[in-house]
Amino acid sequence: MARPLPATAEITIVGGGAMGCSLAYHLAALGRKPLVLERGRLGGGSTGRCAGGVRQQFSTAINIRLGQRAIELLGQFQEVTGTDPQYRPIGYLLLATSEAWAEALARDVSLQRLLNVPVEVLGSAEVGRLVPGLRTDDVSRASLCWTDGLAGPNEVTTGYAAAARRLGARVEEGVEVVGIDLKGERVHGVRTDHGLVSTPDVVICAGPQARQLGEMAAITVPVDPLKRHVLLTEPFLTPPLRSPMTIDLATGFYFHPEGGGLLMGMGDPSQPFGDDLSVDWNFLPKVVEEGSRRLPSLESAALRTAWAGLYEMTPDRQPLVGSVADRPGLWLACGFSGHGFMMAPPVGESLAAEMCGSAPRIDMSPFAPLRFSGGTLAPESVFV
Ligand SMILES: Cc1cc2nc3c(=O)[nH]c(=O)nc-3n(C[C@H](O)[C@H](O)[C@H](O)COP(=O)(O)OP(=O)(O)OC[C@H]3O[C@@H](n4cnc5c(N)ncnc54)[C@H](O)[C@@H]3O)c2cc1C
Question: What is the H or E stretch that residue 14 is in?
Answer without folding.
Answer: strand 11-14
